[in-house]
Specification:
With 286 residues, the protein is α/β, with parallel strands linked by helices. The chain is built from eleven helices and ten strands. It is an enzyme of class 4 (lyase).
Length: 286
């Protein structure tokens, strides 16, 4: 099955109320691992790249990794640029072949955000690509983007006007969620998701997914959160499994890098696969 659009993946998930993991990868090992998990679980998958990853690896190398690893893949997958406030990076990625982008203009006024998002949507459409939009910052810093200041939520009508004006394909509201690891259990505004979806049926992107409970995930997915972002969980899995393996290696004084890579890959595949089971996307391809 070829690489598909973000809309192709989320339309089914939104209609049938399951969540598709949108996982931020940061090197070749994590990219291959999450793709392998998707094939193993017969699950659609959204692969996300941060601006930081795009700049550190390079757009050409990163896209070449993507095309080579997805050639002949048996499940629907799509490539998404996460939280990007830089228009030039959006243009570069769309030109190169990214399937969708999140234009993060939440630091701007709603009026300017709306104006520029309309331009980004038009640009994406010329490439057959899709756009995720937001009008409120998600609390927390992720890959150098964002703020730890608690996000201010706009009135419902402001969000609906933004959706009507821009025609974005996915919307990421602030509902008390946050990037990174939660210090205390978050108090989420579940009803806000329902209110948005009832007034303007659009797939909702749940950011700050690492650390929510099974019950919170299920409730939000049932209300329309079809795209569930995961970043911190994969980073922690990668780093902690590497640390554990290296500590054991040091004790044995046997140094074999391929063994490290196999061990970390195994942990990453397991983590991604468990998310697909948890969100209900496993077994949806057949």
């Amino acid at each position: 099955m070829p690489v598909v659009s973000l809309k192709d993946i989320l339309s089914d998930a939104f209609a049938k109320r399951y969540g598709v993991p949108a996982i931020n990868v940061f090197n070749d090992l994590t990219l291959e691992a999450v793709l392998a998990a998707a094939v193993e679980k017969s699950s659609p998958l959204i692969v996300q790249t941060s601006v930081k990853t795009v700049k550190s690896i390079g757009v050409d190398v990163l896209y070449s990794m993507w095309t080579s690893m997805t050639a002949g893949i048996e499940v629907p997958v799509t490539l998404h640029l996460d939280h990007c406030p830089e228009r030039e990076v959006i243009t570069t990625c769309l030109d190169r072949g990214w399937n969708s982008v999140l234009f993060d203009a939440s630091h701007l006024s709603v009026e300017e955000n709306t104006r520029q998002t309309i331009e980004v949507v038009a640009e994406a459409r010329r490439h057959g690509a899709h756009v995720e939009g937001e009008i409120e910052s998600i609390t927390g810093v992720e890959d150098g983007i964002g703020s730890d200041t608690v996000a201010r939520r706009q009135d419902l009508q402001v969000a609906l006007d933004f959706l009507d004006a821009t025609g974005v394909d996915v919307f990421a509201p602030s509902i008390g969620n946050a990037h990174g690891t939660y210090a205390v259990a978050p108090q989420l505004d579940f009803q806000r998701v329902s209110d948005i979806v009832a007034a303007h049926p659009v797939p909702i992107a749940l950011h700050g997914g690492s650390g929510l409970s099974d019950e919170q995930f299920r409730d939000l997915i049932d209300r329309g959160c079809a795209k569930v972002n995961i970043s911190t969980a994969l980073k922690e899995t990668y780093m902690k499994s590497s640390l554990a393996f290296l500590q054991e290696t040091a004790a044995k004084d046997k140094w074999d890098p391929p063994s490290l890579f196999r061990s970390v890959r195994h942990e990453a595949v397991d983590m991604a696969g468990s998310l697909m089971e948890q969100f209900g996307s496993a077994g949806r391809v057949g």
